Amino acid sequence: MEYLFTFWTCFMLYKEYDRVAAMRLKFLASQDKRAEQFTVLVRNVPHESKRSITDSVENFFKKNHPDHYLCHQAVYNANKFAKLVRKRARLQNWLDYNQLKFERNPEKRPTKKKGFLGLWGEKVDSIDYYKQQLKELDRRLTMEREGILKNSKSIMPAAFVSFNSRCGAAVCAQTQQSKNPTLWLTNWAPEPRDVYWNNLSISFFSLSLRKLLISVAVFALVFFYMIPITFVQSLANLEGLEKVAPFLRPLIEWKIIKSFLQGFLPGLALKVFLLVLPAILMFMSKIEGHVALSVLERRTAAKYYYFMLVNVFLGSIVAGTAFQQLHAFLHQSATQIPRNIGVSIPMKATFFITYIMVDGWAGIAGEILRLKPLVIFHLKNMFLVKTERDMEKAMDPGSVDFPETLPSLQLYFLLGIVYAVVTPILLPFILVFFAFAHLVYRHQVINVYNQRYESAAAFWPHVHARIIASLVISQLLLMGLLSTKKAAKSTPFLVVLPLLTLAFHKYCKSRFEPAFRKYPVEEAMEKDLQNRSSESDANLKAYLADAYLHPIFRSFEEVELDEVKVDKKPPPNSSSPPLSELSSPSPTHHAKHHEEDEPSQVSQTSHNVQHYEVGQPGDLFHYEYEQSNHIYHYDVESHHQHESQYHHNGYHY
Q: Which of helix, strand or coil describes residue 474?
């Protein structure tokens, strides 16, 4: 029976892996033009004493990829600048709030106290105060921006290098660039929306050290996480609570309070710890140094799965905390571990049926009702929402929570596989859960959630590996269970089954996983030939010029308010090129092109001043772009306009 079940599962896995890989390649081939298809992320660029990082990147790729290199964008350490931008967005929001407040009641200007949290200090006019704060912060932002551009130490040993063909990018991303394998490391660049900019400034040596430390920390977290939970739950018990706080004894003796504490506090303590766990794991993944949001979520999902496997599955089967389990495993032979766990599996079937109904079924119902986001929205609406911008943020449905959702689904799949042969009565509960989960999550992905990035099914190899792990675990536990029964003689026939399953996994890994790690040169060349007539180098360069533009080159509003439509147009009768043709505030700092393709509109000593008007909610900003020696300076003058003007212009604020 176990053989039949395993062969059927592997057959379905093979078909699904084949279908997903084909869909991924079809999706990549169907896209007319995507920035990540032409761009490679280069890290650990060697430092040369007489040459900047930008010049080193340009010279290296012009020398080694002369026929395909198009341009590149340097990576700046702009983490401090990003903090100032977020601070400016908060001040701008307070200014908008006070302006709206004044418009509703023109007879009374809003005021605030300058002290801590506005609780004490000198009382000042709120609108004038925030305008002055914004003016000072704009000056600091301009100085910080210029400091980043002028300081060579701000340029990190990394760059986004773009090529004039998909084939050229594929060859660069999938080959070793230097005889020293630790230098000029190339990988496919993430989708622009998928880039996690904060980690691009981490050095190669630091990455290796961080991954080692985080691996140790994850192991400790998985096996020692139950210690604080057990401690808190011991306090939640009435006896422990009376010992810690004897003065509460008269209150605890009340019948209503006693029954409430006994039934509520232990579960609440566990739930609080589990709620903060995904945030802790995401923080640890960020410390590891991954440069893509999709990779961060995949690594966090893997860590959460390990935690669920040890503390929920094994922790529920084996009595005691995870630390006690680890201590017991270390002091017994490896052959005894499956046997000891296998004995406990049938006895825990009732517990897991209850767990599936309470956590699984109720979780699916809560997902379709979106109770948690509903409560959070009303709390934000009551205490935090002051402007329409706040309302939009509060109403944002967010995206699928992969780090928490995928491990939960994989845990239920593990339960189904383990109990399919041992206790089949659990299977109907699992089937009901997955049937409703399929309908609910399909609806949520299509109609509710926003898509933060497109990874083209990059999660599937990890899902496949978890299913294989579930199969192997179920086979080992079944062997342990049979060794304690009268069917002990049949146990040796199952020894070969885990080996066959791992061999199948290795075959699938070699057969299909390259499609998720690399882009076939054949596919790239075919796509290049199809689009050669429509994709000239000039059009492609204009398309890629700002694709991986670092936030320091964006206006302050574009960094934080991507969804606000900004209308940029030069004044009438202007002979200067529009802003869109400039492609970026400082192309020589972040994007280097071939010299023969370099626009000759601006010389090294030219000095042009362009004025643009940018309509923003609650303010009209006049940006003055001054170009001198390829450095742009920004002068911002804010003039408040009546709310109705922006309704007329298409801005609802």
A: helix
